[in-house]
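Dear Dr. L.,

I hope this message finds you well. Following up on our conversation about the binding site, I have prepared a predicted three-dimensional model of the protein together with S-adenosylmethionine. For your records, I am including the exact sequence and ligand specification that went into the calculation, followed by the structure tokens. Please feel free to forward this to your student if that is useful.
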Amino acid sequence: MIAVWQKTLRWQPTSHQQQQLQRLYELILEGNRQLNLTRITEPSEFWEKHLWDSLRGIAPFFKEEGGGMKDEFDSSSSFIPPYGSGEGVHPSSFRVIDIGTGGGFPGIPAAIACPDWQVTLLDSTQKKVTFLQTLATTLELENITTLVDRAEQVGQLPEHREAYDLALIRAVGSASVCAEYALPLLKLEGQAVLYRGQWTAEETGALRPAVAQLGGAIAAIEECSTPVSQGMRHCLYLRKVAPTPSEFPRAIGVPAKQPL
Ligand code: SAM
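The resulting structure of the complex is given below.
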């Protein structure tokens, strides 16, 4: 597996990080007995669809020496941020939020891979968040905090609005709903990673005006296939280019019922 990390994400986990990922798997299986955290429990499927899939979306933000996919992108693009856990910045103040984290994906693998990021796990289900808090303590992940709330409410709270450098969101809703949850939470120049499966140029065209309305722009779209089952994946990288108008996010349930 280490060879696959290295080849596909150019990330080399330390033995401590490998142990944390292994322990994460065991703890999620234990938690699954009481909570409906995931249907993916077979080890290689868990590795591919939860661990690898979580990390491929943030690989462009990894430290230079840790790898990442930077040179696979057009170097003239402004997509890659001048911050993250790279040099010359303030990595310990790099704030990340995983919106609708569920069983902790992609936020927990991100917190393991990037221990200098401050990762907030947000979910509307109290039981899941209580479990994740215990899990983070067991794994000694001091860079994780948890939050029980709806994304629509959190986006209107002064302590969270425009407070994050990076927002991650996987399997929570349509792309425009995810954009409405994520963009209000970002600082100017912050980025959101929308994890998608299949994705088309038509969908990009339809999403662009919604993202613009929220003060964002589509910075890059990365296509890849998963390393074992060759499933198609896309990551949409949104950049916040202007303040999000105060009416967004709209009230609870409205983004999903009346998507932009
Ligand atoms: N992100 C995880 C993953 O990819 O495995 C979990 C995905 S699960 C299908 C969706 C999660 O989003 C659920 O745990 C649900 O409680 C949470 N969720 C849905 N809408 C939400 C909202 N508006 N605010 C906060 N959490 C939300």
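In brief: The chain has one domain: 2-257.

With kind regards,
A. P.
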